[in-house]
Amino acid sequence: MDDRSEPSGTSTTVMSNAPPAYQQPFIQRGLAEAEKYYDTPRSYYEGSTVVPFSTRTNEAMAGIDARARAGSPLVTNAQNLTADTMAGNFLNASSNPYLSNAMDAATRPMREAFRQDVMPSIDAAFSSAGRYGSGLQANAQDRAADTYLQNVGDMTSRMAFSNYGDERGRQIAAANAAPTMAELDYLGLERLGQLGAVDEAFAGSALQEDIDRYNFAQEEGRVRLGEFLPQVTGGQFSQQTTAEPLYNNDAATYLGYGATGANILGGLFGGGSDSAYQGLKGLF
């Protein structure tokens, strides 16, 4: 028995997702509008897209520029004072008039006591002893004067040493502050650099505006085409037709016939499936 299957015919299936008839007028209208927009070139904004500096901004920038170029006298004075302190120009009494005044005030009580108390007491003592004008009186006066001068010298030395130590501390502080003072020279330059950066940013914005305008002109037609084509060729409407052969399954047919015959024979022989099988076997 030949169990090969042969096509017995062809089944054709048509699949379409085209829009229904009531939508088609609106689609046609949309396509017409898309064509109209495609045929109409767009234009770039005619004015400038860069916001100019305001009057106040221009005035502020001009003021900063002038101040940065001129520098500050405060900075100059601070640098000069730092340099003089580092050089030790305030270490001696001549450069510090307040030190000599302080020394004079501190030694004034000793001078007054020497003139008004010590020396008159010596004179009175030797006069009452009848030795006024003697060599002993002169020696006593010399010793009193030496003591007075030594006391004054000790006090002024201590004050000068204290002033020296304080000023040395200021020298060291000035040396530590020197790098900061040197950095002050760049303040004006930094301000000018900041203004330059503002000018460059503004010029960059103006240049970018020109670039954008140029790119718009170069791409305008391509953009319109890119927007137009999807509107008219979106690919959402299509129709597909497929044809498939129809087969008759001979084996199934034969089995169907066999099963039917077995049932019939089983009924005829009254023996159920086994009797049917034996009956079929006998037929073949």
Please explain how this structure is put together.
By secondary structure, the chain is mostly helical. It has a domain at 250-284. Helix content is 73%, strand content 7%. It has helices spanning 24-39, 55-70, 73-87, 97-128, 135-183, 187-232, 250-269, 272-283; strands spanning 7-16, 239-247. A two-stranded antiparallel ribbon has the order 1-2. The longest helix has 49 residues, at 135-183. The protein starts with 6 loop residues before the first strand and ends with a helix. The model is unreliable at 247-273 and 275-284 (pLDDT under 50).
Note the main attributes of this structure:
284 residues; mainly alpha; two-stranded antiparallel ribbon; 8 helices; 73% helix; 7% strand; rod-shaped; disordered C terminus
Write the SSE topology.
Elements (H helix, E strand, L loop, with lengths): L6 E10 L7 H16 L15 H16 L2 H15 L9 H32 L6 H49 L3 H46 L6 E9 L2 H20 L2 H12 L1
Antiparallel strand pairs: 1-2
Give a short summary of the structure.
The chain is mainly α. 73% of the residues lie in helices and 7% in strands. Helix 2 packs antiparallel against helix 6 (187-232).
Number of helices: 8
Largest sheet: 2 strands, antiparallel
The whole-angstrom Rg is 61 Å
What's the total count of β strands? 2
Strand content: 5-15%
For the terminal residues, how far apart are their CA atoms?
13 Å
What's the helix-strand series? EHHHHHHEHH
The side-by-side strand order for the widest beta sheet comes to 1-2
Runs with pLDDT <50, length 5+? 247-273, 275-284
Quick check: average pLDDT?
A: 78
